[in-house]
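Protocol step 4 of 5: obtain the predicted structure for the target chain.
Materials: sequence only (see below). No template structures provided, no constraints applied. The aim of this step is simply to have a reference model before the mutagenesis design in step 5. Sequence pasted as it appears in the construct record:
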Amino acid sequence: MISEEFEKRRKLLERTIRQEPKKIVLSKIKIVSEKKDVEKFFKDAVNAGNEGLMFKSLKSPYKPGARVGYMIKFKHIMETLDLVIVGAEWGEGKRSKWLSSYTIACIDDNGNFLEVGKASTGLKEKEEEGLSFMEMTRLLKPLIISEKGKEVKVKPKIVIEVGYEEIQKSPTYESGFALRFPRVISQRLDKGPHEASTLDYVKKLYASQKKS
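Step 4 output (structure tokens):
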């Protein structure tokens, strides 16, 4: 059925599934044409404890592992963080000449850089499209202070704006927190490493996220 349109697949589910609350139910669906209808549906979804909505084309097939062109998430946007790159990793395949995964850190009251995750998405493969892996590699290579296998440690100098879906508590990183699905948005040319987001700010965002 994956090549069939969404509308047809949904109707088949409605005919097939005998819904029982707390056991098996179909996702709530609403066909909308007005912004106010979307806003109300979104508010209802969040109040019910969901992350948000999925927009889907009624005529789209099902494409495993891909959303672009078929569906898109709609959810609250978390505030971005300005974080320092303290490490990186050489890529594989066509990215083998680039440092394409970046260990990112916030800063504590004593000026220590504490890791909060690794970001490997958001940059471009072609320089003309924006901040690229090639450009970031050029910036980071002179800052390498040690290298082990594919992993390198770099002098904390490059500050990047990072988006993410959620802040989670984590024993993996020194900060005690980890960013879920971090992505590079831009390089903060106007900020030095000691102007990065603080650990206290990360804690504040984590607490506000829990409340909401």
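Step 4 remarks: DSSP finds four helices and eleven strands in the chain. The chain has two domains: 6-75, 81-211.
Proceed to step 5.
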